[in-house]
Amino acid sequence: MTINQKIEHTFNALKKVVGWGVDKRVTLSLAGYYVILGKEFDESRFKEIESYIKKKASIFSPLRSHLHPLFVATIDAGGQESIQAVDLLLEKVEALKKSSFKVNSYTYLAALLMTDGKEAWPNEVNRAKQLMQDMKKHHRFLTSTDDYPYAMFLGKLNGDTAVRAESMNRYYQELRNHKFYSGNELQWMSQVLTYTNASYEEDLISRVLIIRDGLKSVKIKTSAAQYPMIGFMAVLKMNEDQLNDIVSTYQSLISMKLFSWYKESALPIALGWEMRSSKDAYTTAAISMATSLEMLLQAQQAMMVSTIAATSAATSSSNSN
User: Fold this and answer.
1) Considering 2, 23, 154, 159, which has the largest number of Cβ atoms within 10 A of its Cβ?
2) CA angle 12, 60, 131 (to 5 degrees)
3) How many Å separate Cα 267 from the centre of its chain?
4) Mean pLDDT of the chain
């Protein structure tokens, strides 16, 4: 099946389970998530995870909030036995809570990005906490709980957290000079740009500008919601052929009736699809959830989920810095 056929098939299967009460953009993003990771949607397993979460989580838990389908899908796609996976997620959240992380939806997203081996948790939690503290030195008011997922995602990488935070700030300030809007999305973009190197790289700014202007030239929106996507394209040093493939996939997706009113949901899927299909193999999957709850609330629970299947090449590059 083509990616369009896979998306439509998975979307229809998901819709039967999550119902029409869930914003269509949420379901589209989750369909893209399954397709990018090459996972078949299993209705019975999805329902089993849903049922167990409802037993374990309180009525006010983020696990039962508007992000509920996201948590279920992520646990489902992880491939672990469902009860074990939910219990492990709750343990990870407790580990974050004990280290003074405020418990909200972003804490659970950060927990999803922690490794399963409990012996690694103290270091991962401490590194994420330290990175948050270093980021606050530059952006005291902008840095908040919504940065938890990226702090966990990037804190696990090699490199001094203070150096990484300084680089983030330099990217942020420089991009503001090139007509990028200040705010959470630009902060997330500046964080993404440190993915393969904690130190500042001058040429990444020019890469970002080339990609932004190129997307604009083919009438792809480059609004704040897309900033993290542009950041990933730049930091992974995607070549012209790869970028053209992303554009082609995007244009193919928006030709579908499913995306008629939700074109902004297509770019993250197109990017994730390129990362999955352009390499022969990948050894690890690094999942970055760029989910803005503020945007969710403003857009009737819409969400933007970026899934990056990091190739062995990208992984080795990040480990070398």
Assistant:
1) 154
2) 90
3) 13
4) 84
